[in-house]
Amino acid sequence: MARGNLLETAKNKYDPWAQSRTGSRNPPVRASTETRKYLIIFEKPVSSLTPIELSDKPGAAEYRASPAEGIVRSTARYLLRTEVHTFAFSVAANAILSFFPFLLLLMTVVRYVFHSQVMYSVVEALLRDSLPTGQEFVIRNLNALVGTHHRAQIFSLVMLMISSTGIFLPLEVALNRVWRFSNNRSYLGNQLMSLGLVFACGLLALLSVGLTAGNVAIVNTALHGYGIWYVQLVGFITMKMFSILTSIAIFFLIYWLLPNGKVPAQGVLPAAVIMGLLSEALKYTYIFALRRLNFAEVYGPFAISVSLMFWAFLSGMLLLTGAHLSARRILQNV
């Protein structure tokens, strides 16, 4: 009863229309803004008066709403998603389809355009160092195709155009989800982007081969044919240095250009550097593990294809890991 009287008194005090109904002769006056706020707080208090500001940048709300977790746990949660494995396997399958045509075109350009035996030897050395298994088998078949079957180059170009879309289409969808971009490119737009990235990768590979061959030729000329072991050592070190730099550049171009949205270049560069270095460490780890996997006992003549498929899958997972880490760091700071 006392609470009811208190509410009635407050209502008559701050409601001029109530005063006019009770017989007051004073004209009704509208309640000010401060009075209305007081009435709202008096009748229905809120638990917090701190304003909440949400960023209008894509992905900021999702990252801020998620509970804080460490970088290892966040990466593990991301890599355990079924969609991530789907994207990685799709990339791996199409990477195998495009790998052989890409190398065939690269070796054809080196032999018939540049006419450089040193560059051709560097490509073979790169294959022996980069492939985890079946190096001599791949090199022998590539040499046979480059030397005899000229129609294979045209078919390789067509297959490269088709299979490159199969690589970069799922990669674009995966990177758009990482960056929280809602729209994907059209099929034609993705095709043009894929061809551009393939062309850029080819130029980077040619540049790496050319720089390595140039250094080897300079050292060989300076020594006048002596010190073969020193020339081979310099060639190997130079080849490794330029191949790692090429890997970093390819990672950077994919992280920066492939998503259908604006991605800061300086934000993805550290991830590209780290993933380029980790890809080299992952390769030697995989080569060491292949001795214990015994794919030949299970898959027989298809052991090389299966080994390359698993290697491409692991590389795809590594690429998506770098994209997740760079997006996580940037989106948490917006």
Q: Would you mind describing this structure in some detail?
A:
By secondary structure, the protein is mostly helical. It has one domain (70-331). The protein is 79% helix and 0% strand. The two termini are 54 Å apart. The model is unreliable at 1-7, 13-25 and 28-67 (pLDDT under 50).
Short structural summary:
The protein is mostly helical and 334 residues long. The protein is 79% helix and 0% strand.
Tell me the radius of gyration. Answer: 32 Å
Shape: globular
What's the main sheet like? none
Helix content: over 70%
Return the domain count.
1
Q: What's the total count of β strands?
A: 0
**Contiguous uncertain segments of 5+ residues:** 1-7, 13-25, 28-67
* Number of distinct helices: 14
Please write the string of helix (H) and strand (E) elements: HHHHHHHHHHHHHH
Q: What is the structural class?
A: mainly alpha
Distance between the termini: 54 Å
Mean pLDDT: 81
Strand content: under 5%
Name some characteristics of this structure.
globular, disordered N terminus, 334 residues, 14 helices, mainly alpha
List the helices and strands and how they pair.
Elements: H1 2-14, H2 16-21, H3 33-43, H4 60-65, H5 71-79, H6 82-114, H7 117-130, H8 135-148, H9 151-178, H10 187-223, H11 228-257, H12 265-293, H13 295-299, H14 303-331
